[in-house]
Amino acid sequence: MKEKPKILYHGSKSRFDIVKPQQAHGVCEAESKMGIYAVATKDEAIPFALPFRWYPDEPGGKLQFNTDGKNSYLHYGSIDPNGKGYIYVLPADSFELVNDWEWVSSVEVKPIDIIEISVKDYLNTVTFSEEAKKIQEEIYGLPSH
Fold this sequence. Notes:
The protein is mostly beta strands. It has one domain. About 15% of the residues lie in helices and about 35% in strands. It is built from 2 helices and 12 strands. The strands form 4 sheets. The protein has a 4-stranded antiparallel β-sheet with strand order 2-3-10-9. Strand 5 and strand 6 form a beta hairpin. It starts with 6 loop residues before the first strand and ends in a 5-residue tail after the last helix.
């Protein structure tokens, strides 16, 4: 079994003082628990801190992206090139390993630190599908790479 690090990292597009468990919607049971998901490195948390947006940005909208732990592929949706995200540095005490790289806590956690990131610094890690490119250009009027 993997040794538990002393600290873990959680990425979010929202800023808050206490990280609270939420229902995840992953592709399998391990990725769909009610909890706080965290990873062992800051780099692995960055894709989850990027503020990908639903399209249209309303209840009927949808968002679809995936990540390899460093790079993200946006299938459907958009991302504000001037947006911000947040990396939460968390004590690992209440976390349990649920797969090869993700840890989950079922209780709220007070962050040790909160690191603000800018989308523009990580936009080069995002690849857009043809559909997402069209959405991106429609909303932001900027060519995406």
